[in-house]
Write a structure and sequence with these properties.
Strand order of the largest sheet: 3-4-2-1-5-6-7-8
Number of strands: 14
Number of helices: 16
CATH class of the largest domain: Alpha Beta
Mean pLDDT: 96
CATH architecture of the largest domain: 3-Layer(aba) Sandwich
Low-confidence stretches: none
Structural class: alpha/beta
CATH superfamily of the largest domain: Glycogen Phosphorylase B
Helix content: 40-55%
Strand content: 15-25%
Order of helices and strands: EHHEEEHEHEHEHEHEHEHHEHEHEHEHHH
Radius of gyration: 22 Å
Distance between the termini: 19 Å
CATH topology of the largest domain: Rossmann fold
Shape: elongated
Length: 376
Amino acid sequence: MRMRVVQLNLHPAPAGVTPAELFLRWPTLADIPEAVAAGGPRVSVLQAADYDTRLVRHGIDYRFVDLREYTSPRARGRHVASLLRGHMPDVLHIHSLACAEEAYAIAQLLPSLPIVLQDHADRAPSWWRRPVWRRWMRSVDAVAFTAPALAHRFEAAGLFPPTLRVFAIPESSSRFTPGPAEPARASTGVTGSPAVVWVGHLNENKDPVTMLEGFAALAEVLPDARLYCVFGSAPLGDAVKTRIASDDRLRDRVHLLGRVPHAQVETLMRAADLFVSGSRAESCGFALLEAMACGLTPVVTDIPSFRELTGNGAVGRLYPVGDAARCGAALISAARKRAPRELVREHFQARLAFPALGRRWAAAYAELHTARRRRA
């Protein structure tokens, strides 16, 4: 008999947004359940919304639940438990560690139900909330992070009990695919050897200034290099423009594209040779996943999530956070000896594509279900 799993999203859908619109806005709402179902389990989704409705989409049962009257985490958890009790799942997968109190309330009413919480860039609680948070986490069977090292900030604060399992499973994946470079270059106007693409906000965490310093070093050695920057918000926009204007190595080689349609990002990545990031911290790295899905060689910071996604640098190059010299050296090394696109794509397919995530989640659910049955 197939294992039955419920994935619970307590972050409410935007007001007035229909399910059809929500699937377009939040593609992972369907992507992750469908990937898991392909791995074996029967998956249902409970999604907080401002309406009540049910639908079946691609074999997944979605239940949109109006939780607005349940104003406290404890009340929301109890209501969710009442919804689950009629059709008890074998495992409950709750998105976000911020829902620890709801998980505790559910566990009080359904003590035999294994619960796993998944990190989504969640912060450790303030010191004064940690005693009660420790009590809540004792009701949870497992947590999932993109990389095990991301759990360290919680473990160092004593927030996880010793028996808690920690799974390493990326938050999501990408449906981008490789494609021929020449048509992509023709449609985007990308030139350069190498052509480097950046996708990320121009803010302190993404650290575009360090990246520009690194690219300047690349351009000094390989004058035909070009950099194309896709970004949304730009609190460091003026600093970036000033840095580009002040350096002959950057002035005619860096193209600030701003916000572009998501499909155009895929075409840019097909046209480029390297992907670069300067992130100081990431819970996953969606742009990196997209780049690797296109077979693009990554040059990224040596942070836990990027180490995990690249197989500790098995594909691409890692450099220390904030180190412009090492960024430049990594770019030069990657430009001179690029990983074949087929190799990067093969790594992505084996470890990071949706089918791979589905298999990893199915294995994690089975482990939790078996462990709980043994204890019973």
